[in-house]
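STRUCTURE REQUEST FORM
Protein name: Copper chaperone PCu(A)C
Source organism: Hyphomicrobium denitrificans
Requested output: structure tokens
Priority: standard
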Amino acid sequence: MRTKFLLLSLMALLPATAFAQDATSKGVTVANAWARATPGGATVGAVFLEIRTDKATSDRLTGIASPAAGRTEIHSSSMEGGVMKMRRLETIDLKPGTALVLKPMGDHIMLFDLKQPLKDGDTVDLTLNFEKAGAIAVKAGVAGIAAMGPKGAQTNSQGKKDSMSHEGMSHDQMHGDMHH
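Status: completed
Returned output:
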């Protein structure tokens, strides 16, 4: 009973997201999927989410597909000598009992050849393919262009909007300045 109360108490502290949708298959859960809105004419977008495994499950993310884009890729971002570098990842290994968070300025999903701009309030369908868990389909809620998290999670503990130096830049501009 105490554990249930503690879990409910912790859940009450989590920010509510407008598009929160968890999907689980064979010990792998995909949660908190979101994308940034793109300016009109942009052909590239980014999606962020969390992948959790239960303590008895290891797996491998082998690919991602979306009807919103002509092509999807998993990318890793890192700072090297003051320059943001990105590289494509073919797969991501998932260890038992861990959470992998794909987030801005870190690992993320790239959507290339967008069929239409991603607009704040829309959703993007995604299918993540895992070696053991198979296909897991989720919907990513689209947040503002400068968002650093899903809707409802864009403020820090002081209630102020989080900001970074690239705020206001389009995803195309950010990736145009990065070396692959």
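Reviewer notes: Confidence is low (pLDDT under 50) at residues 2-19, 154-180. The domain at 23-147+164-176 is CATH 2.60.40.1890 (Immunoglobulin-like).
Form closed.
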